[in-house]
């Protein structure tokens, strides 16, 4: 006879996870913070990290549902857009980073009537915006696959009017010639398990 676990009544039954297709979605910013990083040379840099969730359409509340399905103690909020923050050092690369950052803030302003970016990231919480998701390849312990990840903000009306192009997929740096098959590129798939390939710190906020 099998012994019943002490916490059996609180155990959540395993469910299938639905993969999110690449494309454009209307999202809400659940919280934002500035995170510190360092590169291989030890040089410090920063990213603005914004936790998101989808608020319209077939995949509404996608990340909240995913978060609730995780049965581990170190749950991770997987919908996070990470925007590089410029250093204002006058380099060509830094000017490109500024341009990308401004495109992000413009998209948020265009999507929220009366809002103006005032350099306080805490005020981003609750704002809606359009977000493009692209397929990115992950690789963990010899296994690999593809996953739609937040890539870029666009005005929310561009998503609602389908005025966007799906971003090109990004292969893993160790497998630069990999491409997702047609089925993965065009539709969602149900999967039972998916490795957590990246640590998003203490998100959600």
Helix-strand blueprint:
Elements: E1 17-18, E2 23-38, E3 44-54, H1 62-69, E4 80-84, H2 92-111, E5 128-140, E6 143-154, H3 156-160, H4 182-186, E7 190-191
Antiparallel strand pairs: 1-7, 2-3, 2-5, 3-4, 5-6
Biased composition (Acidic residues): 195-205
Region (Disordered): 167-205
How helical, in percent, are the residues? 10-25%
Mean pLDDT equals 87
Number of DSSP helical runs: 4
Low-pLDDT parts are 186-201
| SS-based class | alpha+beta
Rg of Cα set? 19 Å
Approximate strand percentage = 25-35%
- Let me know the largest β-sheet: 5 strands, antiparallel
- What's the SSE pattern? EEEHEHEEHHE
Describe this structure in words.
This protein is α+β, with helices and mostly antiparallel strands. It has one domain (18-188). It is built from four helices and seven strands. The chain has helices spanning 62-69, 92-111, 156-160, 182-186; strands spanning 17-18, 23-38, 44-54, 80-84, 128-140, 143-154, 190-191. The strands form two sheets. The protein has a five-stranded antiparallel sheet with strand order 4-3-2-5-6. β2 and β3 form a beta hairpin. The longest helix has 20 residues, at 92-111. Residues 167-205 are annotated as: Disordered. Residues 195-205 have a biased composition (Acidic residues).
């Amino acid at each position: 006879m099998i012994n019943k676990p002490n916490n059996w009544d609180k155990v959540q039954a395993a469910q299938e996870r639905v993969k999110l297709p690449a494309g454009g979605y209307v999202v809400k910013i659940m919280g934002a913070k500035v995170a510190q990083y360092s590169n291989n040379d030890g040089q410090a840099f920063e990213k603005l990290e914004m936790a998101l969730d989808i608020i319209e359409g077939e995949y509404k509340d996608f990340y909240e549902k995913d978060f609730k399905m995780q049965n581990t103690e170190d749950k991770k909020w997987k919908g996070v857009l990470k925007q590089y923050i410029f250093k204002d050092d006058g380099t060509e690369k830094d000017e490109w980073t500024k341009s990308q950052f401004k495109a992000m803030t413009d998209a948020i302003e265009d999507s929220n009537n009366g809002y103006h970016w005032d350099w306080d990231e805490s005020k981003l919480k609750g704002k809606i915006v359009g977000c493009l998701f692209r397929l990115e390849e992950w690789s963990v312990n010899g296994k690999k696959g593809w996953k739609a990840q937040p890539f870029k903000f666009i005005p929310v009306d561009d998503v609602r009017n389908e005025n966007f192009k799906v971003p090109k997929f990004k292969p893993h740096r160790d497998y630069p010639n990999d491409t997702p098959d047609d089925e993965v590129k065009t539709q969602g798939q149900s999967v039972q398990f998916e490795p957590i390939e990246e640590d998003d710190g203490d998100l959600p906020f």
